[in-house]
Structures are given as structure tokens and as C-alpha cells.
## 1
Amino acid sequence: MKETNLISILSAYNNLDKDSFDSYLSYHGTKIKNSELKDLQVFVEHLKVLSRNIALFDKYFIGYSIPQIGKEFDLLRIDKETAVNIELKRHSPKEDITAQLQRNKYYLGFLDKTISCYTYVADDKKLYTLDPTNQLQEVTIQQLIGELVSQDVKRIHNLDNYFNPADYLVSPFNSTQEFVKRKYFLTKHQEEIKIDVLNQLSSTKYSVLAIKGNPGTGKTLLTYDIAKEVLKKKEVLVVHCGYLNDGQILLRDDYAWDIIPVKVVMRKDLSKYHLIIVDEAQRIYTSQFNHLIDQVKKLSTNIIFSYDGQQTLRKGEINNNAAEKIERELTSAAYELTNKIRTNKEVASFIQCLFSKKRSLEKYKYENIELNFFDNYQEAKAYLKQLRDEDWKIINYTPSTVNTLPYEAHNLESESDNAHTVIGQEFNNVVAVIDGHFYYKGGYLSTRNYKNTPYYHPTKMLFQIVSRTRLKLGIVVIKNQEILARCLEILNQK
């Protein structure tokens, strides 16, 4: 995205045909709606009446969106010490203006600059900002002009470098303190689902609801945020289908959340709970599911199943098809999160193309993928230990309790986390190992030549591991030319 002169953009809008104007916007990497351009016209004309300083209109980023997060700013102008954000509205309720300015201030606060956020309402030609207590106040446009003129703006070659998506990706498990203190915002889609779910829970009848989504869509944050909201007034039970992780234990022990592993749910008295949440519900046993549904109907209470049908780890879970059972019992249509906000686009694309040769290859720089090849387990394992010392997260394949499986040769003995313990968690930099037992069958990644059939499916475990990353993904290939070739085919697209 290039910085833009506001007068130039409006000149193009008013004088060029649509194709030429669209091409001009594309050159600047700018996205702006016609309605926003009309509001921008009012804003610029207002400035022109008060100031003849042409520099006042230069070096704005229009419609900039933070990578992965999707948070967009109408106008953004940055110098070495300050950042000024201006949102353009035709008209808007003051509570909506306040909420947006507070949100913008939060996202820009990580820039470590003096932040000023404004909203210009075109119909009234009024300007609003936040006072020191984060409450809305009307100010003169001269105040904004003074800040803009005072900026010493230099050209920025890559605005993305100013923003670290990891700053905003709060997890209830890996950023538990920030989650409890509400140092995060939901996306607009998440907020809409939350409001609708809370309305459903206020019904006098029982409700069976579902929130589903692929890895990285913010399903866990939304689910736990709903739990936190309901907990303000009523009792909530969180049932986790797996081992409790450190974040869940912290919520349970320090913040008095009622969180249990699913294996004890059939011994739990459910009568006092207004809401039961089943997390990672794709892994629930049929008997546990039937018990919960019976209890919900009997007690006229509410249950939310949160799940991702892809995150199954063994054949029994696949055959069980919990998602189908859940959807047969729903009292309203399942809520589905589709936009990935945790995994960046290039990592998501790499993962999709790695698991399926039928996926079309996309042209990315793939700067967040690291690929290394070794011809033996010993040297690969030594390299994994080095990466762990460099703050990469190594996730082991879950070991068998019956047989010793080949992948255990590269598992790190000192690493306690495996494909099961990290369910629902996320890490900035993750390393995954692909050994010689992986190959492509019918165009899809699979495994072969195991002396003893693994209880947990290695390909499913690999997917669980790679989908835990937020920023960077490291792939270590051991003695497998077919997989290395596929990785290089993906990465070398230019």
C-alpha cells in the first residue's frame, strides 16, 4: 500500500472513468467505497476552507487493514512520534462512534507513539475524539489541523512492518491474563454471533447451539468470551474434550471458572448451570454426547458445542462424526466462523497446498515459512533442540502407550507438549516434522509402512501441529524427497 494525497484521490474520482479510477486506486493499494469518497470530499473541502497548507492533504494511508486481523482504518497518517487516525461517517450514533474510536485507539496503541483518533461526521461537519477517560467529546477541526501540520511525515515503504499481528491475537489459553482483563476485541462477525447467542440463551426453553470453524478463525476466543459474559450473572460449566491445558487450569484455579475434562462429565451434577460449553466437541464420545443432550432437555438449560470437524486425531473420532450428531440436535442453525484471523494468509496457503496436491498454488513470498531437510533422525533432532532454544515451539507427535512408533525417534523427550495437549492453543512460531512415512495418496497427504497401526492418525496429528501457528511455520523434512519436492514446489512460486 502506498501513501496517498487526498486531493489527488478526489481529483481522480471526479474526473476519471470507472476503469481508470479503479486502476489508480489499485496502484496505491487503496480500497474505498463511493459513499466514503463523498464523505472524504466533504472533509477535504472543510479543511481547505480553514487552511491553505497543501502538505496537510499528503501522505495518508486510505483503508489500511492490519494483516491477519482485518482491522481497517479509513485514514491513517504516521510520523516518527505520532499516529493520527480519522474515521469518516455520513452520520452515526454517538455510542457507535465511541466504540469504534476506543477500538482504534487500542489497535494503534501497540505502535508506541502518541495516538490521536478522530471521527468526522460529514452530515454535521462535526469532529469527535476521546477525552483522557476514553469518553467521546466534540472538538474543533482546528485541533485536528494543528496535529496534522505538526507531523513531520516521511514516506513509509511498508506499513505492515509497523504492526505485529501477535500483539492482537489474544488466546484464553496462551494469553490468559490479557483475556481475563479484556485486553482484546472481537471481530464484527464474532460480535454479531455473540449478541445472537446471548439472545438465544435468554429463552425460557432449553437451547442446543453450535459454534464451528476451522483453525485460526477465532472460535475458541469467541466461545470463552461468551462464557465470561454469562458468568457475570449465572453459572457456567466448560467441558473440554481433551487434557486441560495450563490456561484452563489457571482459569479454574485462580479465577474460579468451572472447567472439567469431558471424561468426568457423566459424574457431574449439571443442575445448577445456566450454560454448559463443550469445547473441542468433535472429540466427544457418543455416550457423553447423549448424556449431555438428555440432561439439557431434562433441566431446560443451555449448551453450546464448539468444534472443528477437521481436528480429529484418531479413527474412532472420525467414524464417530460428532459434528453430524450435534447438528441433528440444534435448536437453531450452527454459527460458523470462516475468516482466518490467527494464521497469516501465506502460512494458511502453504498448509492447504501441503495437505492437498489438488489445491491451486498461490504466489506468495512465503517469508514466514522455513524449510529444512535432513537425511537422518539424529541430526534432525539436534536441529529441533536448537530451534527450541531460539524460541520456536516444538510439538511432538503423541506417543503410543502400546507400541513404539517411528515418529517417536524425532520426538524431544524434554518436550511435554504433543498434538493432543496443544488442542485449542496457539503459538507464534511452530515447528513440524515430516518423516519418510508420509506420502501422497490420490493427491492427499497420507502415511504408510507402519509396522504397527498408529492409534492416533499421524496425518491428523501433523495438521493439528501446523495449525497451531500464528506467525511462522518451520518444516523439518527427514529423508523424504517426495514431500520436500512438494514443499519446494509451493515455496518457489513467483
## 2
Amino acid sequence: MFDKLFGWGKKKEETKPDPLISFGRYSDNNKTTAKVNRWTDADNLFKEKKYNECFDAFFDYVRDDAAANVVYERNGHEGRFQFYQGSRIVRGQFNGEELRAEATLAQMPQPSVPVMRRLLEMNFNLYYSRYALDNERLCMRFDSDLQTASPSKLYYGLKELATKADKQDDLLVQDFSALKGYDDEHVDNIPQQEKEVKYEYLQKWIQQTLDLIATVDADKFSGGIAYLLLTLIYRIDYLITPEGTLLNELEKIGGIYFKKDERPVTEKNRDMMEGFKKIMTMPKDEIFNNLFRSKYTFAIVAPQAYKTIADNIHGANQNMVWYRDNNYPVFAVQICEYGISYCQYSYSMPKVITEMFHVLMMVNYHNYFTDLGFGTSYYDAAQGIIKGEAIAERIKNIQNNWKEKYPLLDFKTQNLRFDSLVNFNHTFTNELEFLNLDPK
């Protein structure tokens, strides 16, 4: 009975290799102990006024070796660097006096007053960088003299430049016909079949959510409906990984709920649903244009203390109880997912937590992963059972891989329940809540 229920005692099935598909927002909160030490090196070298060696250590720190996202060369007092941030490339150089960096946004063959007005307004929100026009090339720039180019200034200055440029390039080209796309040859197009699957599930998940909402009272279930809609945003963001205008539309939907105003939740829910309906009517080709793969160097959100993550998980699980006990299992499942998926969307998460979160998503959306071509599965669709042994093994491997950085990490897989999706999500996220990520 236990073998059948939990999937224990079975021989391991041979599976085909999983496709190389990335999920979720890039997080630079994934540095190894050696990489973290390079930041300390950079800080100490700057204090000793060894600026060239400081740059060596700094760019080694920001380089993600697995992603090969940074190119850095130095010859004496002069050097150059290049790094990727989504659809943009940031290029820069330094000499014995200053460091300069820039990213090209678009091409503007003819001067445009509306474009320049938009850029002037956005300039007021920048702290380190600025918009610039170089002949027909619209770009963003950052520079600093060496005496003030501390690792912190470099990090936040280059991050502002890179993340703003990556976000604004698509929006500017979309909003102004005077602009043309530029310098995006490095972006990797994804296979047509993958786009088809992502488009299918984008439509399906939105429609399923709207259909479920239609079965309950909009006033009495306003809180639960808000959970469903917000969780849908975070699910699409993580699993489909949209870029450009599609990502911007999702961010606007989330902004409706979290905007600090006096409007009742029912009105916000209504507007969020309209936002999703708008996405459903977007032309298929436009959706496809916002599905691509690229390299990143900086996260667009900031890391948080793990207690903040734990508190979000705890709050969602507390709010789930009523829906579970009153026989609204789909609401309960989604609310459990909300606590950790909100963090995955809103914060730069430790990679070890993202890897565990990914297991949760593979269980909940196993059909999606199967259709994408994944051989790894944690759910037996034929028998309707969650594969407890495979999940426990995967969690054990994750912990072992991160043991050096998080020696106190202890995900107790024996506390997991596999008899229903509600109980699995609850016990899984509950274990995430109590993890100890204190460093060595």
C-alpha cells in the first residue's frame, strides 16, 4: 500500500535528458564562498588604492562562471569589459583615470521630441547613470573616476545601467515608431515547439483561473480570488519566463493589487482579471517575440533576510487553512504556492531555495514539464501519485551541493506528506519556512 501511495520501492526508471530550459528571474544571490571572498578582496584592494587589482576582483565577483556572462581583459592600467543583461550588452573600459560603461537602447534615425521628453522624465529617477544620444544611437551611460569607483558604487551603478536598459529598450521601441531595435543579435531564440507549449499553457492557466473565479462569490471570496490572480502572475513569470512587453503587462497587473489606495479588493480583482484578458488577446506572434533566452549579470530585485521569506510562507499557509478545511482544495493549493512564489518573484533568492522551489513546481505542473520534453518527473500521472522517493533524493542532492555554504541546512523530507497535493504543498512549504541558511 505504501509503495503504491508514495511511489517507494520501485526501480528507477531510465529517463531521457531534460532540455536546457531556464526558469524564473535571474538571481545573483547565488555566489559560492570563493566568489563572496572576491568581493572582500575588491573592497580591501580599493582601500589600498590598488584600483586595477580591485577591478580584477570585482569583475571576477560578478561573473557567473556557469552562465559565462562577463568578459574582462586588462593590460596594465587599461582594460575593457562586457557583460550581458537580458536583451542588452553593457560595454565598458577603464584607464588610469576613469571607468566608463554604456548600453545601447535603440536606433533613432530622426530626432523625436516625444522620445526625448520621455527620457528627460526618466532621468530624474536615475542615481548613477543617464540617458544619452550618440548620433542616431540612443544609449545609457555610467562613468566614475578611479578614486571614487568603490566596489559598491560599481555594483549599484552598473546594475542600474544594465537593468534599466534591459527593461526600457523593448518599451521604448514599442511606444515610439521613431525608434528601431538595435544590438540584440546575442539573444538566443528558443525552439518553435517550446514557444508553442508556453503559449498553450499561458492561455490555459489564465482561462482555468478565470473559470474557477466565476464559480465563487466575488465579495465573499475576494481574498482567495486575489491569491489566485497573484499566484498566476508568479507562476507565469517563473515557468514561462516572459520578457519585454509581456513581462511588463504582468508587472502592471501585480501593481494593481499592491498600489496603495483605498479601493476595495473586489475592484482590484476585477481590474487584474481584465489585465489577464488583455494578455489572452495579444497576437500569438507578439507573445512569441517576448519568449527568448539570454544571459544576465544582475538581479532586477534585491535579496532579503531569510526571515522575510519564512514570514511570507507562514502567512500564506495560515490563510490556506480555511480553504482546505471547507473543501476548496484548488484555492488551498494555490495559496500554499503563493507564499514561496511571491518571494521567488519579488526577491533575489538564494539559488538553493530556488532549486527546492523548482521541485515543488515540477510536482504541481508536471504536465507542463512533460510537454516541454522533460524526462525527470516527480508525479506519476498514470497512477495519480506523487513520487516521494524521487523527491526525497532530489532534496538530499540539493542539500549536499550547497553544504559548504549552508552547513546548517536541514530539509526534513520525512515530514512531507504525499497523499494529496494540498498536503504536499503545505508540508513542503512548511519545511522551506524553517530552513536555516546561516552561513558557515
## 3
Amino acid sequence: MISFIQRLEDLAAEDGRATAITCGAESISRSELMECGYNLAVYLHEHGTREGDMVTVAVPNSIDFFIAYVAAWRLGATPQPISSRLPQRELEAIIELANSSAIIGVEDQAFVDRTCVPLGFRAPNADASHLPNVVSKAWKAPTSGGSTGRPKLIVSGDPAALDPDAAVPLLMQKGGCLVMPGPLYHNGPAVWSCQAWLHGLHVVLLAKFDAMGTLEAIEKHRGTVLYMVPTMMKRITRLPESDRLSFDISSLQVVWHLAEPCPEWLKQEWIDWLGPERIFELYAGTEAQTATVITGHEWLAHRGSVGMTVPGTVLITDEDGNELGVGEMGEVWMRSLRTTPTYIYVGATARTREGGWESLGDMGYLDADGYLYLGDRAADMILSGGANIYPAEIESALQEHPLVKSCAVIGIPDEDKGNLIHAIVEADVDALSEEELKSFLGERLVVYKIPRTYEFVDFALRDDAGKVRRSALRAERLGNAQ
């Protein structure tokens, strides 16, 4: 095993002028990226960051993201990515939870007791040879809202190290090009981008997703690997056919899609367009207890599946915890066959059962061949645009408004995003407006968590025990819409 830093140094020594990262009109070579990262590492070290610390990375898709990761790994620290658009209060909650020694992407002195590095900052040239030669014990620590509505960190159980003789992961090939239209503060885009970068691929980022821009990037940079979520896939297929087919994307070898269920019709369209040999789906949680992968050819034989499970890693149970048989829908439990943990929660506790099983709240069933099929999510999680959104977090913010008596947040099906967030609010509609609520939530929640639609009611939405049946409320509204 060698450290990520050693791997990146080896790639720079092999061809320092090769482009490592491109974002929009800006590109940086392997050697330049290492130099900028080491300069930042020295700067952070001078300001107190040490081995084992968290370094929060709050930058939009940009070269700065990778510079921050080099700096953190060089110090044996753990990069902790978050959205650059978080409201101040949510940002503060995560910083407190992580106890970050440094925050990349905020204004100087934004946190007086921590090192603050503005977006675009380039540390002065410095000799990093005096820094200790250490390896980060956890290579990443992304966040999740959690079913409690409070943020949690999902700290990787893997160090910032790799086997240089192992096969290149995720069907990538050294010398290829990953086109990444997803936001790097989400786990999937960060994992794909870092693995591509560490294995000698050119990583091409979009500042934000754009259907035409994604196809343009594939053509311009001869992209070989593409990361998608179904919402992105839908928007690309909706382009006028004359536009969609005008791009030369023949270089594309692999299209990965994940993060949310993909409608069968949409997957079939991509298979018809690009061929089943190029379409791959992965199902896993950030916790990485296990994963399934399904090829386009397999999917055609097992329509709707997310892939064959590794024996002993997936269990389906009913509400009472009894194991279910083939074809029976229930809660999906997963476990790792490793002897070491795949992750550690900070700020949360896993849902577990005897035997090392853990649940992320998914529902599903297995067929006779061991292929997994997913149903609706348990625990009322909302999947919107590839992001996991927990109603409790939004309800907690809504409840802070003095005129809100009770509330419930549910997902309403949407062709584009999968689900739209719908807030049901017990309040006097004459005293409280939708506009006021949106403004109120805008100070407390990141944009994509703010409900798109609101419904005011004059009855209590929770029982005496404080419980709310979101599934019943959702079914009621879907029934009314039919």
C-alpha cells in the first residue's frame, strides 16, 4: 500500500504536464496541483492543522476542491466536504460536529477560532519537506442530514492509501477522462472524481449540471467515463434529438448511474441510445457496507434490478424483523464481510440488528438468482434530484416559526427530479404566507431542501405522542391528485 500523496507524486513524476483537473475554462496540471496543495498544507500547518484533524471543504465544483484534498492528505488530516451554499447556522452545526481545524471556502475570520481560507486563495510558495510523513486514517468524511434532522458525519473506514498494483476501479482506464457533472460535496461525485484523479485520468468538472454542457464536455475532452444520476439522464434525453445527437460522444466507454432509482423507461432509452455494454448502475450507501453493480446486459434480463448481491451481505425482513423469502418486499439490511469497519458515524447511531446487520432505510426484495430490487424508501426519506432529503430536518426548521403549530414534509412524485418537497403546515393561512415561510427557511436550510409547494391545514398533524404518519399523508395527497 502507498499513500494517496505518494500516488499523486508518482503520477506527477511520470508526466507532470498532463492535465489533472479541468473546470470550465480553468485547468491545472499534475505538478501544478501538487505544488498548490503542498503550499496550502504548509499554510494550514503553520496555522495549527495536524494529523487526525478534520478540514472542512466548502467550495463549489472547482480546482480548489482538489487543492484542499492534497493539503489535507499531506498533513494526515481528513477532508470533510460540504455544500458551499449552506446557511450559516447549518454550516456552524457541521463545523462544531467535525471540530474542524480549518475551513476552506469561507471568508477570513468567518470562524475566529479556526483557520479560514477563502475560495480562490493560493498560499505562497513554501518548502513542504519538513512536514511529517503521515497517512490520513480516514480519507473522507462527507455529511448527511440523518433521520433525526440533525447533521451527521460519515467518516470513511479506509485510510488515504491504495494498492498501486490493484486494478483501476470503477471500470476506469489510466489515461482516460472522467466527465463529472455532479456536485463534489455529494459522496458519489467525490468518490468517482478522486478515484479517477488518483489513477491517472483527466477529471473534467462542470461548475453545475447542464445537459448540453455535459455532452459538449464529453466531445471536447474525449470523455471515457461519465457519472450520472437519473435526474441528469432525464434532462439529457429531453434535449431536442437534433441537439443531443449532434455531439460526438463515441469516446464514451462507461456511463455510471446511481444515487436514486432509475425509471425503467429512462434506463431503456439510454440503453437504446448508447448500447447496454456502456450502461452500469451501482447501489450502495455512503457507509459502504456492501454494493451491487449491474450491467446493461444483466439489467435487460433482470429489469428493474440494481444488481446481484454478494452472498451473506444483504437480508430482507418484515416489520417484525423476520427474514422474508424470494420476491417478498421488506426492509433491506446490509453488512460488510470486512474485519474492520467501513465507516464511523459522528453525530448519529446506526440502525442495527444482531449479526452485524445495518439498515439505511431502504425497502426491497431479492429474486431467485440473488438480484436486488428496490422499492420505496423506509423512514420517509425523500429522494430529489439525486439527493437524500430527510423530512425531520425541514420540519425542525419549520417548527421554529412562531405561527407554525405542527407540520409534515413529504415527497410528491415529479418527472424531472423524482420527487418534489411538499410541506403541510398547520397554521392560520391569513396570518402566515407561503412567501414568508420560504424566506424563513432560506435562512436555515440549503436551497435544495426548501419545499417547493406548501399546503395550509387547520388540524393537528401529530398525535399526542408527537408522531406523524407521513406515508398516510402522502398516499392521501396522491389519491386526491388522481
